[in-house]
Amino acid sequence: MKQQALYPMLVLGLMTALAAGLLALPLKLPLGALYWDLYFAMDGAYRVSLGQVPHVDFFVPSGALPYYLLAIAQQAFPGAQPLLAAQYATVLITLPLMVLVVLDAAGRSRALALWLTIPFALLTLLPFNAISFYPAPGVDGVGLYNRQSGLVLYVLLAAMFAMSDGWRRTIVVTIALAALFFLKINAFAPAVVLVAYGMVAGLVSFRSGLAALAGTAFLAVLIGLPTGMLGPYLSDIAAMASHNAGQLGGRLFTLLSVKFDVILPVALLVLALLAMDWRACLPYLRLLFIGSLPERAHALRHLLTRDGVMLGVALIMAIVIENQNTGSQEFAFLWPLLLAILLRMPQRLPPGSRGRNVVMILFAAATLPTAVNILHMAARTAAVAPGFVGLDRPELKGLNQVIMRGQYRDHALAAQKHYPRARATYEEFARAAQQPSTILYSEIEYQTFYLLDQADAMAAIRQREQARGRAFESVYTLGILDPMPYLLGKTPIRGVTISLDIGRGFPAARRDRLVSAARAAEVLLLPRCPVTPYILDVEAIFAPVLAERRREPLNDCWDIALKP
Question: What pTM, to 2 d.p., does this model score?
Answer without folding.
Answer: 0.94
